[in-house]
């Protein structure tokens, strides 16, 4: 007889049975009452729900996470912001020249002349005029890092740190070793209160070409930069500690869940062996499944599961005994040791050689013939 159910349906049924074995409390759910009634209709008994499932321990209640107040952490960081300015609005029309221009010798000479004029105006304090002349020089020779750095210095004098940063960044694209570009950009960052960037640029400027003014500016920003660095390290350490704590908490909850599942399984199957899973896999054998489709056989096994002593009622039933013999052989072949059939309390008593069977059933012999008939 072929199995009347599709493999997909059987797989789902197996998954459902596995869940019930591990946690029989689910059978007490209202939605599964029909299955509970089905089991009991065959004489089976569904264990009452454990106290653990109906009354969750206080330890399982989700811990209320105390929100971290960032403002409190930030309040620990006190910086000296004296000398900082409001950021200037970056001018999108700030002329940067054509980076693809091929600079002729004549362009280079004219650019140098404009640069000299610009520096003269700068020394006289005419910073706006100096910027105009540096811009003309840049348009003639847009590949000169020095021109961008000097115009950035002029913007710095006008308290336009963002414009200065834009020029100095272009200068460093053209010449990564421009000490002047690092120096003026570092000062611009200082005016904006970006202490770490300021310290980094000013330190690099000193490494390339040391001068007293750059060193003085570096000393000015170092205290705030160190405070920020230490503060960030503190935050990173707290973050790492929090992540480690959460990791340990997840591991603890996983262990508790595993322990509960094991306890529930033991409560459901007090005589089950560690190889119960192997037994349930064995029940998926096509021959075994086909045998259980016989109402007479399934009813007999339900009766035996509710009371192992009822085994003797079926010792002369060829269908039941044939299935038990088949199960015995497959169990022995699979290596499942003694301990009883999972789900059948105490195994099948009196069936020699079967797991949980113990000794062979007593032999019933007819009374001696007294030759009276």
Automatic annotation (TrEMBL):
Keywords linked to the UniProt accession: Repeat, TPR repeat
Residue span of region Disordered: 46-115, 236-277, 347-373
Gene Ontology CC terms: catalytic complex; nucleus
Biased composition (Basic and acidic residues): 98-115, 236-259
GO molecular function, one term: Hsp70 protein binding
Family listed: Belongs to the FAM10 family.
Protein name: TPR 11 domain containing protein
Organism encoding this protein: Asbolus verrucosus (Desert ironclad beetle)
């Amino acid at each position: 007889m072929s199995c009347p159910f599709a493999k997909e349906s059987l797989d789902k049924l197996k998954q459902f049975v596995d869940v019930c074995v591990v946690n029989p409390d689910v059978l007490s759910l209202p939605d599964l009452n029909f299955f509970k009634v089905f089991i009991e209709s065959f004489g089976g008994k569904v264990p009452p729900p454990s106290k653990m499932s109906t009354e969750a321990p206080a330890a399982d209640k989700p811990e209320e996470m105390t929100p971290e107040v960032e403002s409190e952490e930030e309040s620990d960081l006190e910086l000296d912001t004296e000398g900082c300015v409001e950021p200037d609005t970056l001018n999108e029309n700030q002329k940067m020249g054509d980076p693809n221009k091929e600079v002729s010798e004549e362009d280079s000479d004219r650019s140098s002349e404009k640069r000299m004029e610009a520096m003269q105006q700068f020394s006289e304090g005419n910073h706006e005029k100096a910027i105009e002349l540096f811009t003309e020089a840049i348009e003639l020779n847009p590949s000169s890092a020095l021109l961008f750095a000097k115009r950035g210095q002029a913007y710095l004098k006008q308290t336009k740190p963002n414009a200065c940063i834009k020029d100095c960044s272009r200068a460093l694209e053209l010449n990564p070793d421009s000490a002047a570009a690092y120096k003026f950009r570092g000062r611009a960052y200082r005016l904006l209160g970006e202490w770490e960037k300021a310290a980094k640029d000013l330190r690099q400027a000193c490494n390339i070409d040391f001068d007293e003014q750059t060193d003085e500016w570096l000393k000015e920003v170092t205290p705030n930069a160190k405070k920020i660095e230490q503060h960030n390290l503190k935050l990173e350490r707290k973050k790492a500690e929090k992540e480690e704590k959460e990791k340990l908490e997840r591991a603890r909850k996983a262990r508790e869940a595993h322990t509960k599942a094991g306890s529930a399984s033991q409560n459901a199957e007090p005589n089950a062996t560690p190889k119960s899973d192997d037994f349930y896999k064995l029940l998926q054998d096509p021959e075994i499944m086909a045998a259980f489709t016989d109402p007479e056989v399934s009813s007999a096994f339900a009766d035996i599961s509710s009371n192992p002593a009822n085994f003797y009622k079926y010792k002369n039933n060829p269908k039941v005994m044939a299935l038990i013999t088949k199960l015995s052989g497959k169990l022995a072949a699979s290596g499942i040791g003694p301990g009883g059939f999972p789900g059948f309390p105490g195994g099948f008593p009196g069936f020699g050689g079967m797991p949980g069977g113990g000794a062979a059933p007593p032999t019933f012999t007819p009374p001696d013939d007294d030759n009276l008939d």
